[in-house]
């Protein structure tokens, strides 16, 4: 087939040897965790755009495509010498990636203009990556996720292997802004470091790089020089240059025809509405303007300390301890903040290309910046002893032990005590902090400020943290992080019931009893691999499904059963629960210091985003009334539902 080959199938090749010279002080090596999805379709040949047809390159082979909800994920075999991969759609009816895509001849060959380009980037681990041949290494992803296919129809996608990494163009934003670190300098090694957060609008990306580029991890800074170089700057363009930083020489190219929705989507990826359901694919581009943000009445008095933002009729967001962008406030060396009364771009919420973006920096880089949001479209979900609540979302699940996504359901006896039943506006605003999930953890609804009142609600919270396990001696893949799930008893401001067990997490970090979930296991508790592989990184987004009834919690990750908890020994008591999704980054100055000596581990956080977090949300759905786990979740095994090691409140 012209333009694409699917002759090579099966598992992608794995090699520990670096495949390229070093960029940013880091050499690329083949992704040891790469594998093809169990379902999805082999790539079909697409017509190569005329402007590219004159260039002769080898094909990217073994392409498999998984199409879900306006997004296409491409899996493929590794290409020798590749430093990155990228995918973009050429002009076709229904594509939302801009007004049109054209091509220009540059010293680096034919290059697109006006495209939405999604790059593969590199896998991140919270444990040390190996040094091979004297070079620090990072694993090049063999998967690219391309969003923005929001209109049903046929698309032509160009998939390319690149000679150098895609540039880091800034954290995707609606409005250009910069956060310069303000935390007090340490007296030791790190006293001369300075960190920046570059928030770059999609319009500025196009102006600077010729295209909108997401997923680029090629850094301005160098890993080897990280203790003396400034972190967080974008890769700059050269004034009046014909070739921009994103114009990278191509070493292999294929063209793939993609059908949206996917040919198997109705059967294997449906939206299963039961009752009280809401689905949001974020198909409309919009932004929550800073001028529309107010102050969360629970915390006050300043917008960055307690922002309250709303997408009318859709979502409400609330946070705590956000960092002002440069020029909008000043954090003093003693940690106090001099505030500006108007304008706040340190916390941005917007929708673009069928995704919801949330991004913010933690105040002063030594306080926990945290954000939660809930739906305004439906009422709190009903729980009972036989029917399940279902909550689904897709998110970038890269994590350290100081930054992670959060999920919670908090409730009581009635819907009216949780939300205004007419407007659906929350009456409780749960906040998950760094002290929520460990022994003696804070209840997400416990008073955290002078204006919040009322007895704490019963909550069940789930978070992912990038805390690695000890090195394995059995040859199996080492877990880069874990998920914790815990019950917060009603009426108690502190204390948790950790839902983990010794099969799925042993030992717990720091000698605590707060066991979580690191591994997938069979019904006998035997190790089946890391829980959140293969997507414990920036992209592709990880797909989570939570099914919850009072006596059972089941979590599926990328469609496969991750873990199941038998809570019959301590069932939930709430009749209704408000579901919240969120993000947390705390003490980013300490995060940088703690991780900077771990070779090439969380390099993207360190070099490109050292003091802010950006989450990309897609396909959020929630419903109640499921009498059973739907048959599409074929891996569900109730025999692998384990009781917590203890139901004692820690």
Characterise this structure:
The protein has 650 residues and is mainly β. It is 4% helix and 35% strand. The chain has five helices and 43 strands. The strands form nine sheets. Strands 20, 21, 27, 28, 31, 38, 39, 40, 42 and 43 form a ten-stranded mixed β-sheet that branches. A hairpin with a 2-residue loop joins strand 27 (347-352) and strand 28 (355-361). The longest helix has 8 residues, at 202-209. The chain is globular and about 65 Å long.
Distance between the termini: 61 Å
Q: Give the count of helical stretches.
A: 5
Report helical residue fraction.
under 10%
Report the β-strand fraction as a percent range. 35-45%
- Which structural class best describes the helix and strand composition? mainly beta
Radius of gyration: 24 Å
Largest β-sheet summary: 10 strands, mixed
Q: Quaternary arrangement of the chains shown?
A: single chain
The number of strands is 43
Catalogue the unreliable spans. Answer: 1-16, 94-98, 184-192
Mean pLDDT: 86
């Amino acid at each position: 087939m012209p333009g694409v080959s699917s002759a090579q199938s099966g598992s992608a090749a794995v090699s520990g040897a670096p495949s390229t010279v070093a960029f940013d002080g880091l050499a690329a090596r083949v992704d040891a965790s790469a594998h093809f999805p169990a379902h999805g379709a082999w790539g079909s040949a697409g017509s190569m755009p005329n402007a590219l047809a004159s260039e002769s390159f080898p094909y990217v082979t073994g392409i498999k495509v998984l199409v879900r909800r306006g997004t296409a994920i491409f899996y493929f075999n590794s290409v020798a010498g590749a430093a990155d991969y990228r995918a973009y759609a050429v002009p076709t009816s229904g594509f939302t990636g801009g007004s049109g895509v054209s091509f220009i001849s540059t010293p680096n060959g034919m290059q697109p203009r006006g495209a939405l380009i999604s790059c593969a980037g590199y896998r991140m681990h919270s444990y040390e990556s190996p040094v091979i041949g004297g070079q620090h290494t990072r694993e090049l992803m063999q998967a690219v996720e391309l969003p923005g296919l929001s209109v049903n129809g046929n698309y032509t996608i160009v998939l390319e292997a690149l000679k150098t990494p895609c540039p880091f163009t800034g954290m995707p934003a609606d409005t250009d802004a910069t956060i310069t670190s303000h935390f007090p300098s340490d007296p030791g090694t790190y006293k001369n470091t300075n960190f920046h957060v570059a928030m770059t609008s999609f319009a500025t990306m196009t102006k600077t790089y010729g295209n909108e580029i997401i997923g680029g991890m090629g850094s301005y800074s160098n890993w080897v020089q990280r203790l003396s170089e400034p972190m967080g700057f974008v890769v700059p363009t050269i004034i009046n240059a014909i070739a921009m930083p994103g114009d990278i020489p191509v070493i292999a190219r294929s063209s793939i025809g993609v059908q949206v929705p996917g040919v198997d989507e109705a059967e294997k990826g449906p939206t299963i509405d039961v009752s009280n359901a809401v689905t949001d694919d974020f198909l409309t581009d919009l932004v929550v303007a800073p001028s529309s943000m107010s102050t969360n009445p629970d915390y006050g008095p300043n917008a960055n300390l307690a922002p309250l933002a709303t997408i009318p009729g859709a979502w409400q967001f609330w946070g705590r301890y956000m960092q002002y962008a440069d020029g909008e406030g000043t954090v003093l060396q003693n940690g106090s903040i001099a505030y500006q009364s108007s304008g706040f771009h340190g916390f941005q919420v917007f929708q673009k290309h069928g995704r919801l973006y949330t991004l913010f920096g933690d105040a002063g880089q030594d306080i926990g910046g945290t954000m939660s949001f809930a739906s305004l479209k439906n009422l709190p979900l009903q729980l009972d002893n036989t029917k399940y609540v279902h909550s689904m979302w897709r998110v970038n699940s890269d994590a350290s032990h100081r930054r992670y996504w959060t999920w919670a359901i908090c409730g009581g006896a009635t819907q009216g005590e949780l939300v205004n039943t007419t407007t659906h506006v929350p009456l409780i605003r749960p906040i998950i902090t760094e002290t929520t999930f460990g022994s003696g953890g804070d209840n997400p609804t416990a008073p955290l400020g002078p204006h919040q009142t009322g007895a704490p609600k019963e909550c069940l919270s789930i978070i992912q943290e990038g805390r690695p396990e000890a090195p394995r001696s059995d040859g199996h893949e080492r877990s880069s992080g874990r998920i914790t799930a815990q019950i917060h008893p009603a009426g108690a401001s502190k204390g948790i019931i950790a839902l983990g067990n010794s099969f799925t997490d042993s030992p717990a970090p720091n000698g605590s009893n707060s066991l979580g979930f690191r591994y997938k296991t069979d019904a006998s508790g035997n190790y089946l691999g890391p829980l959140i592989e293969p997507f414990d990184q920036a992209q592709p987004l990880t797909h989570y499904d939570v099914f919850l009834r009072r006596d059972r919690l089941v979590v599926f990750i990328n469609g496969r059963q991750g873990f199941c908890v038998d809570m019959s020994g301590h069932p939930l008591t709430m009749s209704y629960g408000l579901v919240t999704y969120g993000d947390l980054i705390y003490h980013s100055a300490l995060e940088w210091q703690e991780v900077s000596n771990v070779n090439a581990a969380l390099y993207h956080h360190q070099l490109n985003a050292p003091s802010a977090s950006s989450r990309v949300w897609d396909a959020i759905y929630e419903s109640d009334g499921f009498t059973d786990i739907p048959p599409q979740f074929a891996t569900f095994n109730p025999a692998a539902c384990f009781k917590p090691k203890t139901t004692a409140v820690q």
